[in-house]
Amino acid sequence: MAEPAIEPDARTIPEAAVPPVERPTAGQKLAAYAVHLFTASGVVFAFLAAAETSLPTPRPRLVFLYLAIQVVIDALDGPMARAVHIKTRAPRIDGRTIDDIVDYLTYTFIPLLLVWRMGWLSTWGAFVVAPAMVASLFGFANTAAKDERGGFFLGFPSYWNIVAFYVGIWHALAGPWPGAIVIVALTVLTVLPVRFIYPNLAPRPWKLPVMVGAGVWVILLAWMWIDYPTPAGWVMWVSLVYPVFYVALSVWLDVNSRRR
Questions:
Q1: Is 12 inside any structural domain?
Q2: Beta-bridge mates of residue 153
Q3: Which of 7, 44, 117, 181 qualifies as a FRET site for 128, CA 20 to 30 Å off?
Q4: How many CA atoms lie within 13 A of 196 on its CB side?
Q5: What CA–CA distance (Å, rounded) separates 100 from 118?
Q6: How far apart are the first and last CA of the chain?
Q7: How far apart are CA 184 and CA 193, in angstroms?
Q8: Which domain holds residue 64?
Q9: Which helix (H) or strand (E) covers residue 183, if one does?
Q10: Is residue 104 one of the residues assigned to a domain?
Q11: How many structural domains are present in the chain?
């Protein structure tokens, strides 16, 4: 009886033996590593935001501008990575690890640090922001946190940069309590098995209204940024329509999907 054929380990095949069509060119490798560098550039804006936060008189508007630039980088690097086939052309660098580190700094640590530094939660600030930081750290480490196929995040997806933006406005309008209550509630939701919509992967037919609503909402945020932290009250209230819609839709879709 003939012995079964043994498939060679791909790692032992000399590079010259790999068909040329399967080997990325030098230009393709360069493009892939350039995308990794683009993702990593977000840490520069994290540094600038942290440096501004540490000044004797931080300028929150400038901090939020740096964080917003990193959000743009975060939104673009995923499609860019897929376009250059980054996993096969630059496999030695794990872009997801870079992304998670930068995201934790800019979506969680620095925004909550700013909330504490500005005294927006009064003397209780450290007791409110520290649990939020810890909860989000567990969220980032949770391998099931992103259900990209279903279009959901598991738990509140650590949008603390947005929360911090509103907390500064609420502090100017009504003092520390509205922000403290919201942060505590979202900290609990971060570790609960409640699912929130992944905006650009939202299930049909909700993707269009979610993305269009997000676009209008971003315009309102930019409008409020101009006069931050005391924008026109009506703009702030109108801007809250989208977050309420996002949370309500997330809960509704989560409940319905569990029933099915």
A1: no
A2: 146, 196
A3: 44
A4: 20
A5: 26
A6: 52
A7: 16
A8: 22-115
A9: helix 177-191
A10: yes
A11: 1
